[in-house]
Amino acid sequence: MINFTKSFSFMFGDKNWPVKILLGAIFNLLSLVLVGIPFVLGYLLELAKNSSQGKEIPLPEWDRLGDKFTRGLVFLVIVIIYSIPGIILSFIPCIKNCLGPLYFLALLFVLPYISVKYALTGSFEEVFRFNELFGFIKKNINDLLIVVLLTIALQIIASFGCLALGVGIFFSMFWANLAIYYLYGKVYTEGERTQKEGSAPEPGTQPTG
User: Most buried by CB count within 10 Å: which residue of 8, 63, 106, 142?
Assistant: First the structure.
């Protein structure tokens, strides 16, 4: 069972959390000129991988920046590819104000799976296995719905960081993303666990040949 509320505070269990969040905020600031985005995504992917393996603490170190940048850049391309239909819908008159936003809302249900799948495998092709993706969403729709609602709530909470002289937004957004990718790891693992339990033969039964 996923402890959803833990996502708000788990990061404070790392004794070095102030430094790591400060560095995350700096890379968030660099995201304004785009260069920071792959670094942040690479870091969050590492967190999601650790979370899926039950090793969310300590938080990842800000090391191996070249690897983080490369993985983050590839994942950014993946997200852009998944976003293309929504971008197209957003430019079509009459439906752009309806279907465009609905597509990006639906994409929030996809992100947990593709984030952790790529974080674990490092494979571009794996995140486009749509049968597995839709199967995962269907079997874990309740947990995913909670994750999506918490994602929206966390982003709203993080937006209040702008009240701290404007710069607080970079800290609060990084904190929110840590919580979100922590949840991604947990919902992925829970989904894999329930799938294995569902496919395992009941005690006393023999597999059919």
Answer: 8
